[in-house]
Amino acid sequence: MTKREIVWPEPIPGFDPVKWKRQVHAEIERETEGMTKEEVREYFRQASERGKQRRVELAKRQTAGVQ
Length: 67
Description:
This protein is an all-alpha fold. It has a domain at 34-67. 64% of the residues lie in helices and 0% in strands. It has 2 helices and no strands. The chain has helices at residues 17-32, 37-63. The mean pLDDT is 91.
């Protein structure tokens, strides 16, 4: 994919993506502190599953016309 094919979204006024990334990283660090590698792996697996479920629910709402 070339740069000409990429469609960039408009920036969200007042949203600082670097600040947001740092906050999320700090939250993950707190939640996984003291976990073994296997526990951290399971933490991310579960987070991935939750994300998939949210995307499915969002798609259902959008097709039903609910925002």
